[in-house]
């Protein structure tokens, strides 16, 4: 089980690092709006809200993977329930922020 815990914590660290980089608006923008946009749209796009959205989601995913690692290490179900809560909040945030950004851009 030690390998599973190590993998979960490494994935969590990578996700948190990506989240911090996105919030600092450094590195490539990892967001569907950017990935699916054509060249003209990319030139005129305000990337800041997408960087923020991606950063927050990656930080939430990183914390969820950390919770999974803690659950594997301790077998304490509190971490499992907290992970489910974080994943639910991340899902709701991703949808709500996408709707907000789309309305703001119209």
What attributes characterize this protein structure?
106 residues, mainly alpha, 83% helix
Low-confidence stretches: none
The major sheet is characterized as: none
The gross shape turns out to be elongated
Strand fraction equals under 5%
Number of helices: 5
Structural class: mainly alpha
The residue fraction in helices comes out at: over 70%
Q: What is the residue-averaged pLDDT? A: 94
| First-residue to last-residue Cα separation | 50 Å
Order of helices and strands: HHHHH
Please give the number of β-strands.
Answer: 0
Radius of gyration: 16 Å
In short, what is this structure?
The chain is an all-alpha fold. Helix content is 83%, strand content 0%.
Written description of the protein model:
By secondary structure, the chain is mainly alpha-helical. Helix content is 83%, strand content 0%. It has 5 helices and no strands. The chain has helices at residues 2-23, 32-35, 39-44, 48-74, 77-105. The mean pLDDT is 94.
Topology, please?
Elements: H1 2-23, H2 32-35, H3 39-44, H4 48-74, H5 77-105
Helix pairs in contact: 1-4, 4-5
């Amino acid at each position: 089980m030690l390998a599973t815990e190590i993998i979960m914590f490494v994935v969590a660290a990578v996700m948190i690092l990506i989240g911090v980089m996105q919030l600092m608006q450094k590195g490539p923008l990892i967001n569907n709006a950017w990935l699916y946009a054509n060249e003209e749209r990319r030139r005129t796009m305000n990337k800041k809200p997408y960087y923020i959205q991606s950063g927050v989601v990656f930080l939430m995913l990183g914390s969820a993977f950390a919770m999974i690692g803690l659950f594997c290490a301790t077998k304490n179900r509190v971490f499992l329930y907290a992970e489910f809560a974080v994943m639910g909040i991340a899902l709701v945030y991703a949808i709500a922020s996408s709707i907000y950004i789309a309305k703001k851009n119209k």
